[in-house]
Amino acid sequence: MSVGVRRLSVLGEFKPFGLIAEALDGKPPDNLADKYDYFLFDPKFVRERAEADNNGGCSISAPSNCSDHELFIRGNRIIWTTGARVFKRFTLPSQVITVCWCHIGDISEALLCVLQIESLTIYNTSGEVISIPLPRTITSIWPLPFGLLLQSIEGNFPAHAPFPSSSRLLGARDIPRPRREIGHSPQNNYSLPSSFNHNIKGETVSMSSHLILSDLLEEPQCTYIEERGKLNIMRDFDERTIWTSDQIPLMASYNKGKMQHSVWVAEVVNCIPEVASASLSDVVPAGVLPKQFLFRRIWQGKGAQTSASKVFLATDDDAAPIICLLLQEQKKLLALRLQSVEINNEILFDIKPDMSWSIPAVAAAPVIVTRP
């Protein structure tokens, strides 16, 4: 076998473990939906708790690191299996829209985030539950390394239904930022105009097409994009998120009207307001303003009439990450090599024009080789 070639063996047709669990439960409920969804996930998400409960071993009482983990979703029910064993069952009051694992705030373990029509339900691996009401329609949720990204739709925001929190959002829509800072530290400092108005919190959130939940005790915050050296609220509701990474702060999106794919870097920006008067400083203490979240576009590609059917991360032969977009309409796989540079102990990401290529393809999946 030549260098770089790997042989694949077909073990058999895969059947979700959740279907087997449903069959063992007996007759399914009459209101059970015909459609179902499932996904396998890495046991690393529950490894810390399993090792703490089990001293690194495998047992029946703790989520096992020795088997495949699967979440099976049908209707308002979720079944979490480890191998052929059911570990947990969740039954929610309304239909589940989507589910993902995410790290939020300073919590070390990953949390299971479940989106429903009017609420976001969050579980930890021990079974504790937090329910967050959503005063506007959220269509999808996506994990990022520092929180949960929420995609919303336009024109569905009750006037008197703020997020349940005492913290304040920034009300500036157009925030000046020096050109020399663009594309640098993900912990940038910049100044807000002194005309900061704390009364338009709900308006700024309603204008934002993307929100980020970075702390379970705080409200989801509006996001910003960098445009011509300034930061503006991201309010392009046609910019639909199609993929994020929970390891690298990246988002891929598709805009149907522009027939355009984009790749963004998500950055955390420290906010330091210009306090122009004593009265304003009383309203907005400098030490309590939340961090803001910025999306910086590092690549865009036009000409696709439909969204990429699949987006994933792969690695080059030198271990450099590659973003892969499967464009079934064009029967090709577009690969974007990610360039990273470390400046002041912080990693910056970019994609250069000469670092992208495409090959003919009708299907694709990342393959992880664990042995040479």
Structure description:
Keywords: Cell cycle, Cell division, Mitosis. One of its GO terms (cellular component) is anaphase-promoting complex. It comes from Citrus sinensis. This is Anaphase-promoting complex subunit 1 N-terminal domain-containing protein. The model is unreliable at 56-61, 157-200 and 272-284 (pLDDT under 50). The protein contains four helices and 25 strands. With 372 residues, the chain is mainly beta. Strands 9, 10, 11, 12, 13, 14, 15, 16, 17, 18 and 19 form an eleven-stranded mixed beta sheet that branches. 28% of the residues are buried. The protein has helices at 17-25, 44-54, 201-207, 278-283; strands spanning 37-41, 69-74, 77-82, 85-91, 98-102, 111-115, 119-123, 129-133, 138-144, 147-152, 174-176, 189-192, 210-213, 221-227, 230-233, 239-244, 250-255, 260-273, 292-302, 310-315, 321-327, 332-337, 339-343, 346-350, 356-360.
Q: So what's the overall shape?
A: globular
Q: Approximately how much helix is present in the residues?
A: under 10%
Please report the number of helical segments: 4
Mean pLDDT value: 76
Through-space gap between termini: 12 Å
- Coarse structural class: mainly beta
Radius of gyration: 22 Å
User: Strand-and-helix sequence, N→C?
Assistant: HEHEEEEEEEEEEEHEEEEEEHEEEEEEE
Low-pLDDT stretches:
56-61, 157-200, 272-284
Total strand segments: 25
Strand portion: 35-45%
Major sheet: 11 strands, mixed
